[in-house]
C-alpha cells in the first residue's frame, strides 16, 4: 500500500510539473479608466514572460475619438532580470504613465465593466458579446453588441513557423437601428507590435457615461505561440457613441 501511495505522489508531481511547463504566459489585465470627458481610455497588461522569466508591464493610452495611441505611448517596461519583481516593473510603468495622464483622474473615471469573459471561460462565446451598457434596470440604454471575426493571414512575414496566423475584424451591431452593422476595425495586415497572433477572443466591454453612454472600449485577448505554451496579450478597440 505504501508503494502505491509513493507511486501516486510521484505521478501527481510529474503531472503538476508537466502542467507548469506548458502553462504559457497569460498577461493580467488592469482597467485603468477614462479621462473625465471620456476622451481617452487606458489599460495595463502585466506578467512574467515565459522562457525568460522577465517581469513586464505595458500601459496603453487610446484616444476614443479615432482609436489611436496618444503620443509617447504605449509604455512598455521589461526588466531583463529574473530576480526583479513584477511590482518593480509595474511601478516603472505607472511612473512613466503619470507624465501622460494622472493616475488619479483615470481611477476617478474607471467606467463600467459591462461584460467580462476571461480566457479561462469555456462556456461563453469568444466571438460575440452583448451587454447592457449600464447597471440600470429596467435598462434605459439600447444593448451594445460586438462581434469578432478572425481573418486568415498565413502569409505574414516572419510567422512561417508559428502555426495558423490570423488578423481580426470587429463589428458593432446597432440594436436601436434595425440591426445596422458598423465596422470598427479590420486588419489589412498584422502590425509588428502584435507579433504572430494565432487567434482572438472578446474579453471585456468597458463603458463610460456622463448623462448617457458616451464612450466604450472592447478589450480583445490575443493568443500567440509561446515558449512554454500559448501566450495571451491584450489590445483594445475604442469608440464614441
Describe, in plain words, how this protein is organized in 3D:
The chain has three helices and 14 strands. The longest helix is centred in the first third of the chain and has 20 residues. It folds into two domains: 84 residues; 131 residues, no CATH class. It is an alpha+beta fold and 241 residues long. The chain is 16% helix and 43% strand. About 7% of the residues have low confidence. It has a five-stranded mixed sheet, with no helix packed on it. Strands 2, 3, 4, 5 and 6 form a five-stranded antiparallel sheet that branches. Strands 8-9-10-11 form a four-stranded antiparallel sheet, with no helix packed on it.
Layout of secondary structure:
Blueprint: H1 2-21, E1 25-26, E2 28-34, E3 40-48, E4 55-63, E5 68-69, E6 75-78, H2 86-98, H3 103-108, E7 112-116, E8 128-131, E9 144-152, E10 166-174, E11 180-186, E12 197-209, E13 213-225, E14 230-240
Parallel strand pairs: 1-14
Antiparallel strand pairs: 2-3, 3-4, 4-5, 4-6, 7-12, 8-9, 9-10, 10-11, 12-13, 13-14
Brief digest:
By secondary structure, this protein is of the alpha+beta class. Helix content is 16%, strand content 43%.
Amino acid at each position: 500500500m505504501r508503494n502505491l501511495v509513493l507511486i501516486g505522489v510521484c505521478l501527481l508531481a510529474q503531472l503538476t510539473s508537466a502542467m507548469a511547463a506548458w502553462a504559457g504566459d497569460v498577461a493580467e489585465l488592469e482597467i485603468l479608466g477614462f479621462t473625465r470627458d471620456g476622451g481617452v481610455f487606458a489599460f495595463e497588461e502585466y506578467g512574467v514572460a515565459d522562457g525568460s522569466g522577465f517581469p513586464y508591464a505595458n500601459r496603453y493610452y487610446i484616444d476614443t475619438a479615432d482609436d489611436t495611441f496618444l503620443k509617447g505611448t504605449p509604455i512598455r517596461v521589461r526588466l531583463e532580470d529574473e530576480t526583479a519583481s513584477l511590482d518593480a516593473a509595474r511601478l516603472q510603468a505607472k511612473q512613466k504613465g503619470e507624465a501622460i495622464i494622472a493616475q488619479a483622474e483615470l481611477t476617478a473615471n474607471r467606467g463600467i465593466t459591462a461584460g467580462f469573459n476571461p480566457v479561462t471561460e469555456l462556456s461563453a462565446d469568444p466571438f460575440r458579446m452583448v451587454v447592457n451598457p449600464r447597471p440600470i434596470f429596467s435598462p434605459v440604454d439600447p444593448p451594445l453588441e460586438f462581434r469578432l471575426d478572425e481573418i486568415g493571414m498565413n502569409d505574414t512575414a516572419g510567422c512561417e513557423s508559428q502555426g495558423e496566423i490570423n488578423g481580426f475584424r470587429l463589428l458593432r451591431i446597432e440594436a436601436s437601428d434595425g440591426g445596422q452593422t458598423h465596422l470598427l476595425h479590420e486588419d489589412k495586415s498584422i502590425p509588428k507590435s502584435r507579433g504572430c497572433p494565432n487567434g482572438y477572443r472578446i474579453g471585456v466591454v468597458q463603458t463610460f457615461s456622463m448623462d448617457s453612454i458616451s464612450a466604450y472600449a472592447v478589450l480583445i485577448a490575443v493568443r500567440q505561440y509561446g515558449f512554454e505554451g500559448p501566450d495571451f496579450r491584450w489590445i483594445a478597440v475604442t469608440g464614441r457613441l
